[in-house]
Structures are given as C-alpha cells and as structure tokens.
Amino acid sequence: MEYYGGVNDETLRPPTVWYTDRVEINMHMVVLTKGVPDFREGKVSFDEDGHLERGKTPTVMNPNDKIALRAALQTKVKHGGTVSLMSMGPPGYKEILQEGMREVYADDLYLFSDREMGAADTWATAMTVATGIEKLGEEPDIIFAGFKTADGETGHTGPQTNWCLDINENMTDRPLITHVISLDIDEDEGIVRAKRLVEGDVSEIETIEAELPAFVVTDPEFVANYRRAEYRLRYRDLREETQERAANLDLDEDVTVWNHEDLNLDPDFIGLDGSPTIVAGVDPIPKGPSEREAQMITPDDQEGMEAVLEEMQQFVAGD
Amino acid sequence: MTDEYEHYEAVVVGAGPGGAAAAAALAKQGVETLVLERGTEAGSKNVSGGLIYAEKSAPYTIDSLFPDFREEAAERPVGEYYMHNIAGEKVKTFDLNKIHHHDTEWCDAVLRRHMDSWLADQVHELTRETGGGLLTDVRVNGLLREGGQIVGVTCDELDPIRADVIVAADGVNSELARDAGLMDWEDPEEWFQGVKAVVEMDPEVINDRFDVSPEEGVAHLFGGDLFQNVRGGGFLYTNEGSLSIGTVFHLDSLADERAEPHELLDSLLTHPLLDQWFQGEYDEREYAAKLVPDSKKVAHPSPHRGRLLLVGDAAGQMQAQGPIIKGMNHAVTAGGLAAEAYQEAKTRGQPEAAGALYEQKLEDEGVMKQLRPQRYRVTRFVSESPPVNWLGEKVLNSRVGGVGIKAFGGLLERSFNSPFVLGMAPDTKLTYVTAPARIGEVLGTPVTAENDIEPPELDDRIGDLTYNVGDPHIEVLDDSFEASGLAVTACPVSAKGFGGGCYREETVQTNGSTERKVSLDTQPCVECGTCAIVADTHWEHPSGGKGVEYKQG
Questions:
Q1: Where would I find the beta strands (DSSP E) of chain A?
Q2: Domain of B544?
Q3: Domain count, chain A
C-alpha cells in the first residue's frame, strides 16, 4: 500500500489516503458558539454594587461550547470532514473564533455581525443563526451547540435554532438530541447513536439513535473517546496542523463575516427590535450575611495562635 | 463501527533511546510502526546518570540513526574522566581517560527529558510516514495472546492492538518482559539503584570552575569510605547549564546496610572535595532515582519470546564496566539490531524468526560479550567468595598492602583503565569500598576546603517534583515488617521516621501484642521499582500521563 502519496517532508499536512481503508463520508459539522465574560477567579471584575464590569473583564469562548466543539472534533477525527464554527456578535468575536481554531481545531470560521443584530434575545439570535446555516448552501450533517451560555444561562438558543431550521421549508427537519454525554456515528446506517442524561440527571442515562442530519446539544459531562491509536494519531495531526493555521490566521481575511444584508434579514425581525423578551431587571446576587464575628489573627501573634489551636483542639478530638 | 482490533506491523513500547532507535530503524525500512509511550512527553519518565557513548565498534549509534542528535539533544561532550579515591578527607585522583576513550567515538552528557522528547519528535515524523506514529500518555499494560501465542499488546487507554512484531523498550521495570516471563524482580543482587540531583550552574561558571571551554565537559567519579560501607560510588557530569551529580549502589548492599539513598547522595554533595565546584552555592533543580540492571547477571541471553523482542533496560542490557556505566548505547544498538532482525526475517518469509535472529545478532556483534563478559563469569566464583575477600581486605589494609599500593600506584591506575581487568572486577566491598579507600589513604593528599552547602531535605525534594496523581499503582501484598520493611530505607523517597514518603514503619496494637507493619502511600512514588524487589508488592506503572513527571531526567 502506498502511504503519503507524494507528500514531501516539509508538509505536515495529513494526506487524504488516511481514509483509504474506510468509507469516507466527509461529515460537515457546524458548531455554534458565543463569547462570554471570563468568569474565572482572577479574571472577572465586579463593581461595588456587584454588577459585572464588562470593560474590565475579558471575553472568552463560552466554556460549554468548547465541549460541543470536542464532540464535533471527535466526529471529524473518526469519520473525516470539516468543522465550521459560527458565532453572532461584535467584530471582536473573531478572536473567540480564532481561540476555537487554536484550542479545539475548528476549520472554518463564520461571524454574523452588524449593529442591527445587537442586543438580540435568544429568539432573534436563533433566527439569525438559522439563516446563516441556510446560507452555507449544503446542509450540515450535524449541528452542535453547548449546554447554556455562562452569562445568559437560558439554554434556549440551541433548541430554538433547530426550531427555526424546522420551520424553514428549504431545510430538512432534524432530530434534536440534548444532554449528550457520548456520541458515535454509524456510517453504514447513517445514524447517530448517543448516550444522554435523562432530564439532565447524572444518575439516569439513556442510549438513543437518530437519523442524520441531526442537531446535538452536548452536556458538560460529555467525554470524547479515542480508544484506537489511529484516532489519536489523526488527532495529533489535526492539532499540529490547525494550531499552526490558527497562529497564522488573518482575522480580516480568514473569518467569513456576514451582516443582515448578506443574510437577507429584515432588521425588524432581528437584534433588539426582533426580540420579544422583556428583561424586567437584573439583581446582583446578594452576599450571604455572615452569622459569626470574624477575628483576624496573624501567624506572628503567638498568643492569638495558641487560642486558635485551643479552639481547634475539640474538633481534632472528634467532639 | 468496527469491533476489530487495530493492527500495526510493528508496535514499539517505550520512547527512550532503545525504542527510538528500533522505531527509527523500522520506519526507515518502511515498516508501519506505532510507538506507545506512557509519559505525558517522552523523557518525562526517564532518568539516567547522564552519559551516552557512541562506540566505534557498535553497528548502531544514536547519531547514525538521528544525525542531528549531538547538536540538538545532548549537553556537553565529555572529554575528560577522573576517578577520586576517597579516605576521609584524603583523596587520590586517577586519570581514567584511557578507559573512557577506549572504543569511544564520542561521549556526551545528556538530560533525558530534553533528549528523549527531541528523539520522539524525530521518531514521530519518521513513523508517521509509514502509517504509524508516536503516541504519548498511553500505558501498555500487558501482552495480547491468542491460543497461548503473543499477538499484540493491551493498554489502559486504548483497545488491544495486534502487531507482527512487538519491541518492548519499556525500561528497567518492563511490564512486558515480566508478562512474558523473561525477567523477574526477585534478587536485589542483580540490580543497582541510582539517585541523582541536577544542580543549577551557569554555563560560564561551569567553564571557569571545571576549567573547560563552552564546548567541553568533564566527568568525575567518586569511591571510597564516604558511603557508609555501601557498595557503589558517585559521579558528577557537566551539562550545559547544570551538573548531574549522583550515586549508584548495589541494591542488596543498600538494603542490607539499611542505608538511606538520599543521605548517601548528601554525603557526596557535602564532601570537601566538591567545594572547588560549588564554592558555597547549591541550587538543586531536581531529585531523581532509577533502578539499573546489572547486565553481568541479568542481561537476558535470549531476550525474545514469539513476536516479542526486548531491548535496552527491559532486557537487562546495562553494562557496568567497573566504574563506567554504559546503558543507552547498548539500548540503541539493540534497538537497531531488533529492527534489522525483523526486516531480514520478513524478507526471508519467516517473520516469526525475528527473535532468534535478533539473539544471533546480539551475539555476532559482540554486544552480549560486553554485557556478560566471560571473564566475569569465570572469575566471580573465586573473586566473590568470602575467603578470598577476607584475605583481600586483610592484605589491602595491612602495612604490606599499603606498601604495595605505594609501589604500584601507577599500575593500579592502569588497571582501572583496562577493560580486561574491569570486566572481571568482582562485585564485592573489596572493589567498591576497601580498595578506593585504601588507595586514598595511602596515596591521597588531604582536601582542606570546607564544603558547607546544605542539600534540600527529602520532603522538599519530593515537594519540588511534579506529579499527576492517579490511582495507587503499587499494592503491598505482605505488610509485615519482615517482608516489606526494607522498602522504608531503600526507597529513595522514603526514610525511617519520615512521614511524607512512600513507605512508613508503623506499630500496630493487636490483641495485646504489638506488631511492626509497613504502610504505603504511592503519591510521592518516583516509579524506580526498588520496592518491587526488596518488598512484597504487586507493582505496576501508573496509567498514561499519571504519576511523576521529570523535567530534567
């Protein structure tokens, strides 16, 4: 058998002959993502009233969306194909998409962006995103979304996007599978086989089968599985190839940006104007009242430290 | 979806120099080769004293397989080699350049994390072109058998994999060699234990204090009475910006004397002789330990079974030529020969004959002669016998012996430089302790310097290591002190009265009587394998990517 037909040493790009011994079905996957404030300790910044300081808090890819990307990557590694990463938001989100390429090896990056799309609720967002997916031309085999965004926490946008696709006469109705914790594609049958948490309950797991194309929402418990060496080798190739591509990405050239005109969307049905949701108000999470008096003791204060040890002694003894 | 096991023509287990050599040689022959390494990066599980030789007579050297090796992966070339015979503060230095340069094309100091990870990158590129490649974080845990025949390997992280040939280069604690029944962990006499500190030192300071140019390095060995009568010695090698300083002892002696390995290392580090290099400064980057097989006793004469070929430490191919220790070069040669043997056997249409052919090549190329010198086999029954050693000790320690050492000092230095004499040097206290100490005492001059450096305590040494803690991988089968108590002292990360190590001695009250027991916490384990030999354990490696991660090695 001839491997690496004609590929010279300088090219690390993996050859397509990888797939010679298998049916190449070349899956096209779309992953939806959103930029959210980085809520990790040390990154996030709140003002005195407990309101998030957007300007001082960096924006990162919604952590749950990375899990969705991992599910797409697993499918790509095992079955071949491409992963398109899509987001709606300000031009700065291009860096979020780049992060998705660098860390989770997405292939193509799409951003839906202009002022008319701003301040959209989940409904208007779903409408915009579904239109973007339609504009791709060919229908993706699987659309992936993560479970909830770290800021909005609604968990609506994924399923609503699927609903918008359903009502679109040009698109195939696709089954929606949520809370997916593991995923396999049966190439011969053209089905997706998934394990999912029933009602998001960790103790109850069901296995379901659905026909492709499908819409998959991953659960935070999702684990990619690569039990064959060939998968891990391909994964390693992808990592080397896409990380290099992400590092050399030209954000102006290599991210496809579509505005509402490109998508042929009526401004009245997108953005703030197209959002039926009314936000009545936002309350900061109140700090829990402290029930006990705290007394500060420095380690140099010998008497104080002795008192602390004395206090602790009863617990050490198990009383 | 498929339930079929994967198949690769060759599977190489372990990405040290032996595995890298085998994989590179296989890939260059166009054999589809998969390399599985359990460390999170190649080299993260590896420790060696730090000298790699390229021998003129060897059919394979690391730079013949990897041309940029010396430039990219090695530290300093080591041109000078000295042995210090120590008696108290008296030291007599012998020049061992002759034996060091005997059959030596070149010799470089190396640090294994850097060296092995560089090798692994080359190996991945070579093997990927054959349809295989190199994977880290995968622990091969045993052999796949069908109808009693070895047909592949089983792993923690992957489904079983079939292969036409399996090269086990999985190190001194090879689980595959044991699974195949080719090696065991029974006898402490067959092993050495090495511990090492990598010590930070600016390249310019090294040049200055060791009197070498930036492109030169030096090796120093230490023997005599500074190691509490434990049989073995110390070494110091110069790297680019650090020193590798360590001690190597016979495991039986170390265990019997109840010596603490880290304390013996400290005895060397704090000896006045080393003040000329430290000059009061000491910054330890890493503490490490490893078992070393004594090829004279354990190099397997027939290191194969079915499709399985053992290479390097896994086959006991570690030559202690008196004070000079050669391991990595033999692993490289063996790896190359294993690949060659498989390719030839395949060409003849008898791939199953690869093992026998490999054995033949080890013999024909003179590797086995170096690993198990006939002279040692012939003379050991006499030279290691108690009466002869008693007599030797008496003579050496007598006035007559002292006169002899004085008269024949030059001859002694020459015999240390003779591969012939070293090949039959007996493994006794006479060779390792009495002789160097007597030489130091009779011929030596006192070192007046004061070495006041303070090496880190054991808990700091453990604390400075990186661990990715997984499930416990060692189980004590018999926790009585009689069965497993030796581990408390012999384990390089345990010590008597120290609670932060692997093994602890405990007194348990049962029905009015007290029992001495041993308890184990595998969290600080450095995976050296000492306790597999001196204690009653079920010993496995941690899963891929788990356990200790050496940054220097």
A1: 27-33, 35-37, 59-61, 81-88, 108-112, 142-145, 176-186, 191-197, 205-211, 214-218, 255-258
A2: 468-549
A3: 1
